[in-house]
Amino acid sequence: MRRRPGIGGLQNAAAARDQYRALGQNVAQIRTDLMKEQLATFKSQLEDFARKHKNDIRKNPAFRSQFHDMCTKVGVDPLASNKGFWAELLGIGDFYYELGVQIVDICLATRPHNGGLINLQELCNLLRRRRKNDREAVSEDDCLRAISKLKVLGNGFEVISVGKRKLVRSVPTELNKDHNEILELAQSQGFVTVDEVERRLSWTSGRAIDALDTLLDEGLAMIDDGHKDGIRRYWFPCVSSISTLVGADT
Amino acid sequence: MAGNWLEAVELTSSGRPVLLPSEIECSLLSAVDLECEDLPNFPNLKSGILTLTTHRLLWVSDSSSQGASSAIPLASISHIFSAKKSLKSIFASPRIRFQLSVSPDGRVSNSGSGSRSVVVTMVVRGKGADLDVFLTKFWDNWRGRAWETGNADVTSGSESVSGSTSSGLYTKEGTVRMVGVSGILRKEQEMWETTDKSLQDAFQDLNALMSKAKEMVMLAEKMRQKLLSGSTSQPGAAEDEELGSKQEMQDWLLSVGIISPVTKESAGALYHQQLSRQLADFVRLPLERAGGMINLIDIYCLFNRARGTELISPEDLLQACFLWEKFDVPVMLRKFDSGVMVIQNKSHSDEEIFARIKTLATKPDALRTGISASDAAITLGVAPGMAKEHLLTAESKGFLCRDISPDGFRFYINLFPEIDPNNVYLVKDYGVYDTWLKVASASR
């Protein structure tokens, strides 16, 4: 093809380029759509297989590792046991263990946002989303049961009640860095209020109350309800600026 | 020298063999001797753990501290004798015999084309091992010849993946024009149709999937890469969902896969012991990330995630942790008074913490007013609950003294060891005692 000179030729070339680009984008669009579709089929098939052929998959170590490979690559949770009659009745079988692993997984994933404290209801919702192909929805009771199975591994995981809500705490006191942040906050004036903690650290109220309660139990904080505005203050006599103050008085 | 006859196996810090890239562990037997009468210089391999993998037979000495280990590539086995059922075999320890081809100088050859053949006898002294099952697996793996396909597939697999990604057509507009648009579109469509078809074929039933497993793994990898890399320019409502699935995939990447999880089926009586070793190898990385201490329940989740469908129960995990005391592993289980259990590095443990507490307690201010749990928490960068625990341990070791006053529970450096029992009034002009004296008199 010979290139024609002049403005007309340039315009033609530009138009052709635009057309190619449009076509390219079109193809790209179709391609991603198709791939998504295929990925969805792939996923649902894998999930089906994980459920139906669980035992057969286990028997063959070489195939098992390949199956896991597929699952991890396309983002399928290979844990998909049905609850079944015996699990429901006696709590035996893998179902509750699987739930347990998935629950801890969710707690680990959300820890950066919530500091290891999650509403039971929210946890349940996330769990259901993860097991969306499951025929029977997971209830809060199932969650509680699965968590109780983890008790063997120490008290690092517990369900606590704050007000009417139930919260799941996945970080034990010994490893909880929230307390350090409160102490740091308290250093400036020697006390904090729930409001202040929530605002300054942008925490949910459950998280702040839980942390302050633990500090009370540990004997690091003291409650002061006697202030005029009626807001409870948590004093920290152990925070060094105050103790030097006391030291200077005597 | 025993080592030059058979290849040695690399062992992990907990004494488990390190497997080759696509090698998978299939079965374990305990208390196995390997004997060979044809070779005078055959090493003395008595009472070890025998691991059958898809590629090799691995023999690791029971007392793993010696680290004696050998590997026999399945490729070098030229024949496996079927078990003889005789009256004698009922009373003696069960044996499995197989023929190895070796080179003239008595080394096991990898190719299986050695000039000499020797017969090796495996004597299984361990009780409760199901030898028939083992023998079947042995045969299957030997006939499976995984070592041949493994290497070839790895290379060709990566080629095909990279090949298909570089065939992205509209990245360079020049190529589009040269090949012709309709041609590319047709090719594109063909590609999708074949993918569709292979997906359909593979998921017909389990056997079909097994035979197509490698292909499917590659397809999965391809899809993942495309979805993760591209489609950032996609506008519209699909964005949200897409972000979700992307997130999901990245989450999954976090789980480090254990390719050959120890199972009850593969390890039999050795289950807990091997599980314990595998766990010790596994926790190293998460522990490092968590700063030397991690909640046992977190590990339960991570470990199971890495194992895929081979879940272990919390009870098994605990058992595995208890067994660490018996092996030489760099990690330990620790239980707090509160009932919380954590895993920590042995090296991370007390010595370093005590040193830091001591430095803290000998600062001028601390000498005068002592330190509290929250002071220690801030300095050590750990939670107050944990800091208190450390202070109490330091006290029990004699580094600190406690003082209970209206100010609360405070700790001071322990000066009593500094005082000379023969001359209690002697004022030393060096050491901690001296520093304390100076600080104390200055504040007065």
TrEMBL record, chain A:
Task: Give the record's GO CC terms.
Answer: ESCRT II complex
UniProt keywords, alphabetically: DNA-binding, Protein transport, Transport
Database matches in Gene3D superfamilies: 6.10.140.180, Winged helix-like DNA-binding domain superfamily/Winged helix DNA-binding domain
This molecule's function is given as: Component of the endosomal sorting complex required for transport II (ESCRT-II), which is required for multivesicular body (MVB) formation and sorting of endosomal cargo proteins into MVBs.
Q: What is this protein called?
A: Vacuolar protein sorting-associated protein
Q: Which family does it belong to?
A: Belongs to the SNF8 family.
Taxon lineage: Eukaryota, Viridiplantae, Streptophyta, Embryophyta, Tracheophyta
Self-association and partners: Component of the endosomal sorting complex required for transport II (ESCRT-II).
A GO MF label: DNA binding
| GO biological process per UniProt | protein transport to vacuole involved in ubiquitin-dependent protein catabolic process via the multivesicular body sorting pathway
InterPro entries from the entry? Answer: ESCRT-2_cplx_Snf8 (IPR016689), Snf8/Vps36 (IPR040608), WH-like_DNA-bd_sf (IPR036388), WH_DNA-bd_sf (IPR036390)
Q: Which Pfam families does the annotation name?
A: EAP30
| Record carries keyword Nucleus | no
Q: Does the keyword Protein transport apply?
A: yes
Recorded source organism is Rosa chinensis
TrEMBL record, chain B:
- All residue ranges annotated as the GLUE N-terminal domain in the record: 9-154
Entry keyword set: Coiled coil, Cytoplasm, Endosome, Protein transport, Transport
Q: Enumerate the Pfam families for this protein.
A: EAP30, Vps36_ESCRT-II
Q: Which domain of life is it from?
A: Eukaryota
Q: Where does it reside?
A: Cytoplasm; Endosome
Entry function: Component of the ESCRT-II complex (endosomal sorting complex required for transport II), which is required for multivesicular body (MVB) formation and sorting of endosomal cargo proteins into MVBs.
Into which family does the record put it? Belongs to the VPS36 family.
User: What's the protein name?
Assistant: Vacuolar protein-sorting-associated protein 36
Give the source species: Rosa chinensis (China rose)
